[in-house]
């Protein structure tokens, strides 16, 4: 075959803030790609977060824990890699 049937991706632990929720979970991305690259791709409207904990943004109360969550990119206020955040502190 002239193509790879399986692409290696790296798992990143992320925090995603939407207008009403804070989501903590894992996101898959291509090695070397930035989170910004995922947001700037126009061919997909959603990003997939796995093992996601969803919290109310104002109270901090956990609303749900799900294995898979699709987040509309237009609802994202900010997103960051928890590992990169810990390195800069």
What would the keywords be for this entry?
SH3 type barrels; five-stranded antiparallel beta sheet; globular
Coarse morphology: globular
Number of domains: 1
- The ordered H/E elements are EEHEEEH
- Biggest sheet: strands side by side, in what order? 4-3-2-1-5
CATH class descriptor name: Mainly Beta
Percent helix, as a range, is 10-25%
Secondary-structure-derived class = mainly beta
Instruction: Let me know the average pLDDT.
Output: 88
Strand content: over 45%
CATH topology descriptor: SH3 type barrels
Distance between the termini: 46 Å
Q: Uncertain regions: pLDDT < 50 for 5+ in a row? A: none
Biggest beta sheet summary: 5 strands, antiparallel
Radius of gyration: 14 Å
CATH architecture: Roll
Q: How many β-strand runs? A: 5
Count of helix runs: 2
Write a brief structural summary.
Helix content is 15%, strand content 52%.
General description of the model:
The protein is mainly beta and 89 residues long. It has one domain: SH3 type barrels. The chain contains 2 helices and 5 strands, in the order E-E-H-E-E-E-H. It has a 5-stranded antiparallel beta sheet. The longest helix has 7 residues. The model has no long low-confidence stretch (mean pLDDT 88).
């Amino acid at each position: 075959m002239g193509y790879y049937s399986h692409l290696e991706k790296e798992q990143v632990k992320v925090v995603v803030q939407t207008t009403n929720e804070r989501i903590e979970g894992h996101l898959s991305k291509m090695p070397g790609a930035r989170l910004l690259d995922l947001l700037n791709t126009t061919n997909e409207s959603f990003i997939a977060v796995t093992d996601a904990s969803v919290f109310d943004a104002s109270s901090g109360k956990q609303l749900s824990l799900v294995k898979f969550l699709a987040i509309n990119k237009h609802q994202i206020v900010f997103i960051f890699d928890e590992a990169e955040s810990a390195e800069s502190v």
